[in-house]
Specification:
single chain, eight-stranded mixed β-sheet, 10 strands, globular
Length: about 325
């Protein structure tokens, strides 16, 4: 038996995945042999492999735009109480004048990764023989690549995590070994099939989107928002394709697959990092995983009352 935890991409929505993982690992007591993440998921898997849930929660509920961007391409303002995101023209112009290939730069995220995923953590994971894998998109070869901690040096592994998180053209482009790399979600947003290929017999997959489309987008007002809509459209269909292929592979290999979606739309721009919202999402993820577990229990054991039903009776 080989159990895997798969976490999709989703930027700031990773806080919700943290809450789900906390319930599955601490409350339910799940033990995993394989941890596989894409984008924000790749940032989480090292902590999860060592059971460092408290440290991960602190990381995900205390970041903001400055923690991620060294040159922030976004301008966030409140209009009628709602946050509206537009482009910082001077910042993007500065990037172009300096010969950069992207609108913004995420060097601060690179430093954040090095501070929070230490050499000691890297060594512990390798000693425990935990398989921790991150997804990157090789734009030069048009291939999705999966980087295992067991096959990388510490510095290389941190680079792959950073590359997996870089949602270009709004964040930095990773140039390494004469190749250009970007967010793993462009090719494999939910790497369920890769977990199966690596021998997983049971998979818990946390998907940072709703199971069905729950809203229609407002019309784009400028080229910047239009570009966001295009990427969102493409990634939505990549995600659905990944899940469909994953389900088929799980059926063919007789793999137990548990899917955890977000029950509601958390945000329309996952590159906005709001500490208060992310704390709320962490709690929501925990509560959601708990309620889903209670539903599963009641399906298999109709005679067993859930915690809520017991409280109501009391």
């Amino acid at each position: 038996m080989k159990k895997a935890l798969v976490i999709s991409g989703g930027g700031s929505k990773g806080a919700f995945a943290g809450g789900v993982a906390q319930y599955l690992m601490k409350q339910k007591g799940n033990q995993y042999d394989l941890f596989l993440g894409t984008s924000t998921g790749s940032l989480m898997v090292s902590h999860l492999a060592l059971g460092m849930l408290d440290e991960l929660k602190k990381l995900y509920t205390n970041v903001n735009q400055k923690s991620i961007f060294s040159n922030n391409p976004f301008k966030i303002k409140k209009v009628d109480g709602e946050k509206v995101v537009s482009i910082r023209h001077l910042n993007t112009l500065w990037n172009f004048l300096n010969g950069r290939k992207t609108f913004g730069e995420s060097e601060n995220l690179r430093h954040l990764i090095k501070r929070n995923i230490t050499k000691e953590m890297y060594a512990k994971i390798r000693t425990k023989n935990k398989e921790v894998v991150v997804t990157v998109s090789n734009l030069t070869t048009n291939q999705v690549e999966y980087k295992s901690i067991q096959e990388c040096t510490y510095d290389d592994f941190c680079d792959w995590i950073w590359g997996s998180c870089n949602y270009i053209p709004f964040m930095s482009l990773l140039e390494k070994n004469h190749y250009q790399y970007a967010d793993g979600g462009f090719g494999s947003l939910v790497p369920i099939r890769e977990a199966i290929l690596r021998g997983a017999t049971e998979i818990d997959a946390i998907i940072l989107e709703t199971e069905v489309t729950q809203f229609n987008k407002l019309p784009a007002k400028n080229p910047f928002s239009l570009l966001f809509d295009i990427f969102d459209f493409m990634l939505t269909h990549v995600e659905r394709h990944n899940i469909t292929i994953g389900k088929l592979a799980a059926t063919n290999k007789n793999v137990k697959l548990n899917l955890y979606y977000t029950p509601t739309v958390l945000t329309t721009n996952s590159l906005v990092f709001d500490e208060k919202l992310m704390r709320k999402w962490w709690k929501s993820g925990y509560k959601y995983a708990k309620s889903k577990q209670e539903e599963m229990m009641s399906e298999f054991r109709p005679d067993v009352l859930t915690d809520k039903e017991i409280e109501d009776k009391l």
